[in-house]
Amino acid sequence: MKRLIVLKEFDRIYIGEKINDVIITNTDIEQLQNLKIDKSKANVEDFLNPIRKGVQFKNYVGVLKINSGLIVEILPKLYGINSDEESKKLVFTMLRDTKHVKSKLFDEIAMDKDNNSMLEIFINMFLDEVEKICKVGLVSEYQKVEENFKFLKGKLLIHKHVKVNKFNYSNFYNEYDDFILDHNLNRLIKATLIYLSKVNVSNNVNRKINNLLPFFEDINARLLDINKISPHINRRFEIYDKAIEWSKMILNNNTFNTFSGVNSSLAFLFPMERLYEEYVYNKLKYNNIDNIEIVSQQNKYSLFNKKNNEYTSIYKLKPDIVIKKNEDVIIVDTKWKILGSNGPSQMDIYQMYAYFTRYRHHGINVKKVILLYPYSGSYPRTVFQSLSEAGGTIAIIEVAFVNLTDDNWINDFWKLI
Q1: How many C-beta neighbours within 10 Å does residue 23 have?
Q2: How remote is the C-alpha of 160 from its chain's centroid?
Q3: Which InterPro entries does the annotation name (predicted)?
């Protein structure tokens, strides 16, 4: 029986707790608390907090399978979404419109009643790409081959020839180019298939893998550095592009930041804060109006330019999105927070005030700064103004919202500009 639990950001689980008919065991909690980082810039503390007899997850979304067999799906906590399926669809929609994840990988997402596990969805997207390759046939590539023959072929490797054939002068140690299937791209795919077969996600996934492995029977699964493998050898390998990117993501856990190690079989985990920022930026960029200039993570300016007697940039300002329309500029900072009735924090307002005033100091005609939250229904759209004693405007900060359940939110946003 599959041990699958579905949680939301910041949920806690404890030993002995029953979730979705799954009882959380001591082994589950031990393995989660002792996750090891492997090939990732992230820290385990970014993803979860160990607590007494349990763990608390943070604002990462996605899926994690540990060696105990427990599969944990973590979904965004969002106002107006009433089902787990809606939440999953939102995650995949955001991934598709996000530049730091290979968004082309998420062009075709199969979410049906028989395949509602996020882990299966991710893996099936990889397997579907491998099936496409197998249907047209694996592509061969010229590779340098070294062999000891009775005849000379290609180039004689003198040093190795002398060493290997010291007592057999009838052989030649040759190096030559051969057009073969056993190259790094096919090896990478085979290694990924073998790895996934050991993860044991489901009978359906195992059946697909077992059907695909015979196509790679003559391929060596031994790999060099995965990150040095590129699908773009030539146009004949275009069909490999997505499968290779998926392979790297699976074997390297190479998403935004993901976790793997001795207790983690497989993980696809994405920091929701960054996912939201990237999603908003890309939706604005590719649904542009009037050729507005849109820049992400601009870092031109600093809060201070001088420290003691030294001119230097201190406290870099890095707003999420800068929108320029003619000579007017609007700064947008995305905040993945469910805003309560008390409104934004003082720190967030101070940060926006610094953006507004410092950009103005540099002669930039900033109209306003927008704090952009996911819609919560608890706080209205609000405009804060800082006025001088003479009544002039020093700063304008607007609190606005994205209704991620409404496909037309982008049109509502442009009305703010």
Answers
A1: 11
A2: 46
A3: McrC
